[in-house]
Specification:
Shape: globular
Number of domains: 1
Number of strands: 2
Strand order of the largest sheet: 1-2
Radius of gyration: 12 Å
Strand content: under 5%
Number of helices: 3
Order of helices and strands: HHEEH
Length: 81
């Protein structure tokens, strides 16, 4: 099976269990620390256009981009957001 280069975990049926973890992690962030839905989606859009995205994971730092994008305090490892 070929790796989905520019996919997020939420878009991959075979990773549904991991996406549940992503959603729970985002929900556990205190509201003041959680990125707004708009900011979250904007960040994910940047990640989806990045060559370093591979199957929902950033190849620069190894994180799940959907978790990194959830926190206001987080940043892109290459400074794109």
């Amino acid at each position: 099976m070929e790796k989905c280069k520019l996919c997020l975990i939420r878009d991959m049926a075979e990773k549904a269990d991991i996406y549940e973890y992503v959603k729970k992690t985002r929900a556990m962030l205190p509201e003041g620390e959680r990125a707004s839905d708009e900011l979250y989606e904007e960040r994910l859009g940047v990640c989806m256009a990045c060559d370093s995205l591979l199957s929902g994971t950033c190849r620069k730092c190894g994180c799940y981009v959907e978790i990194r994008a959830a926190s206001k305090a987080s940043g892109c490892p290459v400074g794109r957001w």
